[in-house]
Amino acid sequence: MSDNPLFKRTIHKHEVPSVLLPEGSRTVRVYLPPGFQQWISYPVVYCQDGEEFFNFGRIATHAQRLILEEDWEPFIVVGVDVNVKLRTSEYAPDGERYSLYTRFFAEELIPWVESHYPVRDVPEQRLLAGDSLGGAVSLSLAIAYPDMFSRILSLSGAYYGPYMEQIRQAASLEYLKLWMIVGLQEREYATDRGTFDFVALNRDAVQLLEEKGAIVRYTEKDGEHKWGFWQQVLPEALGAFLGPVQDRI
Question: Which of 43, 128, 150, 220 has its CB surrounded by the most CB atoms within 10 Å?
């Protein structure tokens, strides 16, 4: 089994320095595709909740298989870790650390990655991915930095009131393409902000996004608000942006 190329994944761990974050740095994990060459430029997926995307979403394993077995164009994955205790504070627009985190992401993380790895630096080749609050803050970033981000992968996004207000206040979102999914068993999910119907949250977000001109591929499937569900749908989600051309949004 150890000779199987699917298991020979290259993942680097770094501390990205920051003058914005009180801690002075943030841990990231970087998956490099098979056959990686420094002189080739690659599409890149930036994941909120980076540790969980790698450990529970198995995104590096998915990527390796899709590139080797499905002949996808190679791509790089950057997972940005978060302290669970500070997650809502960083990801929610009304959180104390939200402005610091989103500025760090756009102004420090992206330049650091692009100076260390040959990732493509245009919005169409940068995919923002996140689950729950991570999906919602990915959309937040794309609204705040339209010249940087235009592709969103949202797994059961937690589109609470402050996020919906950001969408409402946006002039136009015609530059955005989103792949969104929610599980049908997420109608009464308890969070640190109360119990929410995530199906309703996502339906309302999709309607508002489309009214603003965004292109949305939206799916509802049997599933709960957990990684067991999201891990299964990740290949389809990635395929909407990185798979065969005919499958893309």
Answer: 128
List the Cα angle 93/97/99 in 5-degree steps. Answer: 60
- What is the Cβ-side half-sphere exposure of residue 151, based on CA atoms within 13 angstroms? 20
Q: What H or E segment, with its residue span, contains residue 219?
A: strand 215-221
Identity at 205, one-letter amino acid code:
A
Tokens 């669970």 -> residue: 84
Could you tell me the residue range of the domain that residue 34 belongs to? 5-247
Name the pairing type of β-strands 76-80 and 25-32: antiparallel
Measuring CA to CA, which residue among 200, 199, 208 is closest to residue 178? 208
Q: What does the pLDDT read at residue 5?
A: 62
DSSP state letters, 61-126: HHHHHHHHHS-PPP-EEEEE---GGGHHHHHSTTSTTHHHHHHIIIIIIHHHHHHHS-B--SGGGE
**Which tens digits make up the pLDDT trace of 51-104?**
999 999 999 999 999 999 999 999 999 999 999 999 999 999 999 999 999 999
> Tell me, what CATH number does 178's domain have?
3.40.50.1820
Average pLDDT of the residues of the chain? 96
* pTM as predicted: 0.96
**Domain count within the chain:** 1
DSSP conformational letter for 192: B
